[in-house]
Amino acid sequence: MLFLSRFAFSFFLFLVLIQVQAQNAAQANYDESKVPPYTLPDVLKTTKSKKVQTKTEWETIRRPEIIKLFEENVYGQMPKSYDRLTYSIKNKNADAMAGKATLKEVTIEVVKNNNPVKINLVLFVPNRQKGPVPVFLLINNRGKDNTDPTRAKKSDFWPAEMVIDSGYAIAAFHVSDLAPDDTATYVNGVLQLYPEQLTANDGMKAIGAWAWGACRVLDYFEKDTTIDAKKVAVVGHSRGGKASLWAAAEDQRFAMCMTNCSGNTGAALARRQFGERINRINTVFPHWFATNYKKFNHKENVLPVDQHMLIAAIAPRPLYATNASKDLWADPTGTYLALKNAEKVYGLYGLTSNLNANPPAINQPIINSILGYHNREGEHNLTAYDWSNFIKFANVHLKK
Ligand code: GTR
């Protein structure tokens, strides 16, 4: 009887949550004319109102300030210390993909205060390439079968053959190794290494832990002589794309960043309040961002940052952002405008992007630009079309 009523109560809560989510999504604004007037924080003005004019001022004053603001208010701290990182090759096949690639399944173990976290990396390296090769690293937030090392199952979410044929290595790890994507169990992973993060209002949560994982894989790449660790592109889709941005902003060793349909608290401007909003993301995914971020529910304009500043923190490194035409939830226009508003920081490095004032038409990728972008026809997803443009973009910016 007690069991039944508990079950009924949980089911009731579940229904309420579904309804709240549906209401939130239905109430979302998709009408450009209803975007409220807003002023973005000036990426080139310090908190002490000093105008940043040089690369040095940017690197020594404003950039560190921006990273700190994102840590305190959005993603949480990114602890960098650990006691040791070791790895073992669980499986190796020098004749994978009909001889085109070498497969390595690597277990990376990171230990702090006797607490371990294990990252299972799947890595294919092209055989025809001589010397260390650049690599695309996917933060995989979907099923593990998308990155099948046996290649019995192939998925456009991680089109390994296409990447190998283009002369790049391709790697992936799954977010659940770092922090399960779940409100209750996200603490089982990286957060066991840094328990102080659990109670701090600016403590890292799941998205921070996934980004941390990408940084540790980069630590491993520095030890793998087949990989050019100075040419690592970190890739993520949607929630994974929020993590790829945060990883690239925090860790300047990443040479390039791809953020696919990352939307709210990813590459899209929050102040536009278009599609998903901070209140909604914090309510449905309370385990993603720092507790402090909840202060900005319904208060986008009070946030001391907006997402153009996260993109600016990646400068001068090349960044490619995408959207999908039917994925208004992730605000394609707001994503493009975030890139546009980060341009002036790239300008400090003498890098001019070729971004027009308005977003390009659907399926018109911008490749020859330090800030790349496309809005693909279709749904919220990571597809072969997206990857084909990542490769073109890397050919321009990584191969040279
Ligand atoms: C949605 C969420 C988005 C995005 C997406 C995904 O439910 O609102 O911010 O992260 O999930 O990861 O596919």
Give the gist of this structure:
The protein has 12 helices and 9 strands. It is globular, with a radius of gyration of 21 Å.
Topology:
Layout: H1 2-27, H2 55-75, E1 84-95, H3 96-99, E2 101-112, E3 115-126, E4 133-140, H4 160-165, E5 169-174, H5 190-193, H6 196-199, H7 206-221, E6 227-237, H8 239-250, E7 256-260, H9 278-284, H10 307-312, E8 319-324, H11 332-347, E9 371-376, H12 384-397
Parallel strand pairs: 4-5, 4-6, 6-7, 7-8, 8-9
Antiparallel strand pairs: 1-2, 2-3, 3-5
Helix pairs in contact: 7-8
The structure holds beta-D-galactopyranuronic acid (GTR).
Beta-D-galactopyranuronic acid binds at residues 141, 238-239, 263-264, 276, 281.
Domain 4-O-methyl-glucuronoyl methylesterase-like: 108-350
Pfam families: GCE_fung
InterPro entries: AB_hydrolase_fold, GCE-like_dom
How many strands, which pairing sense, and closed or not: the largest β-sheet?
9 strands, mixed
Which outline best applies? globular
CATH class division: Alpha Beta
Q: How many extended strands?
A: 9
Q: Let me know the CATH homologous superfamily.
A: Alpha/Beta hydrolase fold, catalytic domain
Overall pLDDT, averaged? Answer: 95
Portion of residues within helices = 25-40%
Stated plainly, the CATH topology is called Rossmann fold
